[in-house]
Design brief:
Rossmann fold, GMP Synthetase, Chain A, domain 3, 7-stranded mixed sheet, globular
């Protein structure tokens, strides 16, 4: 299987191939990049005009075709220019997953300006921090976000555009004004290393950092997505599962996670746009609603955090819903647990399990894996995409022996320029062009990566490293566990002990000892949680769907552990 996999890989990336790899110089270092990737994200969007009357953006009963979207993007871009927004200036977007999010995004990029993607869950002080940090000229907000910035000081210089407001205030420009401009956008010369957008890293510890995602990084990420799809399609053709000249289905993607993160924006939205597909927006996650939309809109791909796929499969309406349009089902933002990989394969007749591992700092995916190889290596996140070099290093920065765990470092076209206003943080994360991911990984003999854990998400117990992801995967094999999050609990004797917060499936018994007995044959005894908390509600998550481990540690009284 893997000989064929490598052969297809080499064919696709060879000189003259669609995904030919070349060496470019970037900020003084040689990097790998796709020779045929578009010049800029503006070019990605402009190329989609060819899809004309195809459905593009869908929200509830609202539908926009590609032609309608292009008309609105041109108008919004002209309005921004009329407000003296110039190439290099910044436009902030702060709203839920409404169609206006992407329309404002593409319009900003189309005039050479930079998007600031603001976390829709931020409080007023957090929004104030980002606005002061990024200093956009314009902010586009919905009702909830407008209410949060109303009381902010020193916002007089900020032009506010209101989307779906209950009532438009005197100092707010209604969205309808932006879509009423006529004319053509001027030609813009965009350098590949210009900032396309600023996305903030998670603020679970300290103030978030504004990562500078360049056009070069983003278009190479789109090409990585296309490469991963081409790889799987070519393998399927060789196996006789697909006719070589068969037209691939038009993509239809369900947007399940916030557009202010790379998973939804850079991977789902940009990849689907390049392929002329439709994007079906969800206001907020609900597994039952997702199933309804999968059937109604003939969704071909659903991707989100792993728990979303788990909840879809486990939903009472799953067996009653036509999911035959699904081609891929999976997620990112966290590793799919091996049991979930197998459940997708066994439960959804038409869909193959898939995942991609990546970061805000890489404009999207670093690795991708799907189909048969994912089923064969369910704990892997796949090989690094062709536009990357990778090294796995120890704490001194030296490469570790093959198969041994260490910090994953990557270098390539998708690595960010840095963090705005944070030169020290940039220098700490990017050294000689290499991004230090902060993730512990190992690589097997076939070149596939396995993310062991976050460096800071590790329990150091009596000198032994215990990787939380390993314990969580073992717990998820218990049929009563719906959600779990493993973390370190301070211990006077051992330094740390293993703790876990667990949310059970409905009507299941809170039996801590039964869970420990379940773990005994699966993991070493030192890894079995000493402290177990059962919660009455789903575990808290940040906006990207990841569990808030620090919040759990602080909120769970030690005396209530079992």
């Amino acid at each position: 299987m893997y000989a064929d996999y490598q052969d297809v890989w080499k064919t696709l990336t060879a000189p003259g191939g669609d995904f030919e790899i070349v060496t470019q110089e970037l900020r003084g270092y040689p990097i790998r990049a796709y020779a045929n990737a578009p010049h800029s994200l503006r070019d990605v969007f402009l190329s989609s005009a060819q899809y004309a009357d195809r459905d593009y953006l869908i929200f509830n009963e609202e539908r926009l075709t590609y032609t309608q979207a292009h008309d609105q993007v041109r108008s919004i871009g002209l309005w921004l220019i009329s407000r003296n927004v110039q190439p290099g200036d910044r436009v902030a977007i702060a709203m839920r997953n409404y169609p206006e999010w992407l329309l404002a995004y593409w319009a900003t990029l189309s005039i050479g300006a930079t998007v600031v993607g603001m976390n829709a869950w931020w409080t007023s002080p957090e929004m104030a921090y980002a606005l002061n940090d990024a200093k956009p000229k314009v902010i586009v907000v919905d009702q909830e976000r407008f209410e949060r910035i109303q009381a902010l000081p020193n916002r007089n210089s900020l032009e506010i555009v209101g989307v779906r407001l209950k009532q438009v205030a005197a100092d707010v420009t209604p969205w309808s004004e932006l879509t009423a401009c006529a004319g053509q956008l001027p030609s813009i010369d965009i350098d590949p290393d210009d900032d396309a957008c600023i996305f903030y890293t998670s603020g679970t510890t300290g103030n978030p950092k504004g990562a500078e995602l360049t056009h070069r990084g983003c278009v190479n990420n789109v090409w990585s997505l296309m490469f991963a799809a081409a790889l799987q399609r070519t393998l399927a053709e060789r196996k006789g599962l697909i006719e070589p000249d068969a037209e691939p289905p038009v993509p239809a993607s369900l947007i399940t996670t916030p557009l202010f993160h790379v998973t939804a924006n850079n991977c789902v939205a940009q990849g689907t746009t390049l392929g002329g597909g439709k994007l079906v927006h969800m206001y907020k996650w609900d597994a039952g609603e997702a199933l309804t939309l999968i059937e109604k809109e003939q969704i071909t791909a659903m991707s989100g955090v792993p728990v979303m796929s788990r909840e879809v499969i486990a939903h009472p309406n799953f067996s009653k819903t036509d999911t035959s349009s699904l081609i891929t089902l999976g997620g990112g933002g966290a590793q799919l647990q091996p049991d979930l990989v197998n459940k997708i394969d066994q439960t959804v007749a038409t869909a193959r399990p898939n995942t991609g591992y990546g970061m805000t700092e890489t404009c999207g995916i670093i690795t991708s894996i799907s189909g048969d190889v994912f089923i064969d290596k369910p704990a892997s996140c796949g090989p690094a995409m062709p536009c990357y070099e990778i090294k796995i290093v120890d704490t001194e920065g030296n490469e570790v022996a093959s198969g041994q765990p260490g910090e994953l470092t990557v270098r390539g076209a998708q690595v960010i320029k840095g963090y705005i206003n944070r030169p020290e943080a940039t220098a700490d994360s990017i050294k000689d062009g290499w991004l230090y991911t902060g993730d512990i990984a190992r690589q097997d003999e076939d070149g596939f990566l396995f993310i062991v854990d976050r460096i800071k998400d590790m329990v150091l117990r009596g000198g032994e490293n215990i990787y939380c992801a390993e314990v969580e995967s073992a717990l998820f094999e218990h049929p009563d566990v719906a959600e779990c999050s493993v973390f370190g609990v301070p211990d006077d004797r051992l330094g740390e002990e293993v703790g876990v917060a667990i949310y059970l499936k409905p009507d299941k018994s809170q039996d801590a000892q039964a869970l420990r007995n379940h773990l005994k044959p699966l993991i070493a005894s030192l890894k079995i949680p000493r402290y177990i908390w059962f919660t009455d509600a789903p575990l808290p998550r940040n906006a990207s769907g990841k569990f808030l481990k620090r919040a759990l540690r602080e909120a769970l009284p030690l005396e209530e552990a079992r």
